[in-house]
Design a protein that fits this description.
mainly alpha; Amino acid/polyamine transporter I; 18 helices; globular
Amino acid sequence: MPPTTLAARDAGLVRSITIIPLIGAMIGILIGGGIFAIPADMAKAVGSAAPLAYLAAAAAVGTIMLCFAEAASRVPGSGGPYSFVEAAFGPYWGWIAGALTWVSAVLAAGGIAAAAADALGSVFPFMASGPVRALALMGWFALLAMVNIAGTDIAARIAALSTAVKAIPLLIFVGVGLWFVDPARLTLPLAAGHADIGRAAILGVFLFTGMESTLAVAGEVRDPARTIPRAIIISLVAYAALCITVQLVAQGLAGAGLATSKAPLADAMGAVSPALKLLLVGGATVSMLGWNASDALASPRLLFAFARDGLLPAPLGRLHPRRHTPHIAIITYTAITAALAISGSFTALAIISTLIVVIVYIMGCAATLKLRADGVALAGAPLRLPALRVVAAIGIVTMVWLACQSTLAEAGGIALFLGLISLMYAMRRRH
């Protein structure tokens, strides 16, 4: 992709996002509903080895994100993986990467919003189902649309603020829970009598996915060659430490009961104080909605980038005349995500979301190697990752292994979707 093409795609966008708001958006993407719900599934799948599963997942995703950091510094355009995969392999592969990234993020966003409604429903039964639940979800996504249309910088700051707020209940959980941890409870039995490493791997990686979607705002980041890599590294290290600590505290409080809990952190804290349990329920809701706020900043920019390149209808590439934000793409994203949240479930959407993004990770690592080999650098001196070939190889191999953990139905569904978006590309290009 020549620099003129990148400039044309991002025409009208303002490079106003600095490192602090970007870190806030990245950690906001990472700290979502999963950290409040997945500890139970991890304990069920691998028992006492759950913290090690988090460590392995963080290391695997870390290799991917390091590759993405270099790729994004070489091609810092709106669309994230879409932009740099396209620059490396051409428009078709860029479309596939971008479409998969977007669908993965939207599936996760819908599932997490649904989980937030379910968490509220556990305290307020009228929110558990029916029209009240649907109206609440539609109202939430309408609010997100208005905030994001108002301005990119405003949305990024709100995402950063929501990250700080939603971290409070987790810090309380860790800070208080550590004093009541029973070391004897850290040893957990395997619920099924054996470890399900494949499911644990998928769930673990889900906790660390999402950072790639924030690269969709690369066209609006100030000094992207320095800002993006630093933001990725800081965000990933901080979040990995938090996940491992939360899992250990949950195990130490709940013991064997952790694997069967529907609200693991809240139930674990309930053993200490009923009031703190209620706080954790509220904290989980705030965290999940904060995740949505961060994703709503990034995901609409993929639709915007597709439309600017002629792969989707032109109105999706329009900017608001006064706010200079992709308002039609934002409205479209929030409408689709609201529909998923109303009709879907967290666990199923999380698993499919992870398996889809694995394909993007493989393509992104390969694209990074190609971009360096071709000497592509569209925005000044790029990041040069030491031992890039080794890092990329580790990322590709681990993601191929993870893809092999899918069920036949999951693999078939993803293959069908790949066929559909390939057909969509062919028809749009012909048109």
